[in-house]
Amino acid sequence: MQRFKYALMGLGAGLLASSAPAAAQDFIFEDYFHGRTVAEGSFTAINGVKRRFTVELTGKWDGRLLTLRENFHFDDGSRDTKTWRFVKTGPHSYSGTREDVIGAAPVRLSGNTARFSYLVYLSPETETNKVRFHDKMVLRQDGSILNTALVTKFGLPVAWTRVEFRKPGHGSTGKRDMR
Hints:
The chain has one helix at residues 29-33; strands spanning 35-45, 50-61, 65-74, 79-90, 93-98, 101-102, 105-110, 113-123, 128-139, 145-153, 156-166. It has 179 residues and is mainly β. The termini are far apart. 36% of the residues are buried. The model is unreliable at 1-24 and 172-179 (pLDDT under 50).
């Protein structure tokens, strides 16, 4: 059961369809995730494992690199920390890395949606149980982000996640205050 907590760490959100309405503004990673962000989510696997969690995120943007530290608190009392590093590679693209991700995760943004896919070892200490996350993040009109991820192994679905991000104290747009 412990190894499945690593599957949760995906910021990404999968091939699962979102019923949320389209947002009026474009989704820009460094605008949304700069500063403090909070999230609540769940992980469900086909073997019956179900876990709920909250996440406190802290993002720092230096003009080229978004560093996003995620502090996870699971419903069973366990905790974990992961750090994403997203390098901006173009106006609507990034390359993301994290300590448990194999290689880099190319990120593509289009309007209010970000998509990316990456490989993760669910048991990083032994580098076993490799799965792929297929992520989709949608910036909604209320300023929250719905993050869904389909997790596959050998191309077959084995789990999914659902995470809702929000920016406390930043109004309904999800954009940081530029004053």
